[in-house]
Amino acid sequence: MSTINTVAPVLDESAVRAALSEVTDPEIPTISIVDLGIVHRADVGPDGAIRVELLPTFVGCPAIELIRSAVSDRLQSFGRPVKVSVSFEIPWTSDRISPEGRERLRRSGFAPPADIGAVRCPYCDSARVAMDSIFGPTLCRSLFYCRECRQPFEAFKPI
Amino acid sequence: MTTTRSALAASIDPAAETALDELLLSMADDEFVIGFSDSEWTGIAPILEEDIAMSSLAQDELGHARAIYELLAEVRGDGQTADTIAYDREPAEYRHARLLDHGRGDWAMTIARRYLYDTADGSRLEGLATSSFAPLRELVDKIRREERYHVMHATTWLERLARYPGEPRDRITASLDELAPDAATVFTPLDGEALLVEAGVLAEPMAALEARWRATITPVFVGLDLPMPPAGPLDGGRTTHGEQFGWLWGEFTSVRRSDPGAIW
Asked: A-B interface: how many C-beta pairs under 8 angstroms?
């Protein structure tokens, strides 16, 4: 029957997640949006459409629209309708960054989120660091200086 | 003519719908106006770190404003968007607190305004933390985590200026004096707030939230030997806007008015 050919094959949701792990944060291209913890839901609806819900790191994060279109572009290859939305159903918190994500941040020169007293230099691992400014180049980061290796660096805000 | 209620509006008590509209509009207008005012410091703040701080604060507040306007547009369900609500009104139709109508002023004025607003906003958000209106409760949960940094920033600067005798203390004192009559206008009672409290949207009336706010800031004012803002009449606290706002409105709507409906 010809109608059978129009029914898309069963899509494994883990395949969708795997595809999403190839989408990176436009402000930190070394970390994927999955490791960053901003993918809230990724599933296939009863109508066969792929539905993704994203949690912004900050309400005013300007990158979220870019991420939204990058997700949409990446999922086009599944040949199904794609619906990407932004949700506040649960708050994104810095605890949502995966251990792999934290390690990737560190390797890129960003201290992963920690209480001010627990921040260590991402370059030399020294604890002799000082906060220069709570606010940094993006809403989610603060400015620090390492007194050991004399390197300024950015740290993710714990939120 | 029948009016179709939006799906979101249908989730709340019809009697409280007008009051919810009023609450959301006042919150979004507050964040929008202070966010826009703070953005005036971009490039000219006293030190580089504060340039970044004020720009980040502005970005946060405008982000909050957009999210609340979007929620309001969804409640109204009449085709309006965050942009049409934010930009396509006459100055008299804005519902922000008069505390935010004093012009940018100097650095001390900016810190005084930020401190009074951030702490008042904090008490208001506390009153919405367990709101029965889920989309607002969720958004407030997220916003409160960000506002914590705003309060830290404003408090640090308030203490720094107030503790340094001479010009810093004189200026912060003069700024607090100027703002004093309007300090509590964030808590201007909403027309239908009793309905909001009854529906569980808002935990307590504005007067009770104001009392919580005063209890929070009193130790700070006492510790710095600063006079507490008086309990003033709040009549017109969100409806009477002065010339300063007329100027600000002209600024933030200038692009929009130059080419209405343009997308950029």
From this structure: 63
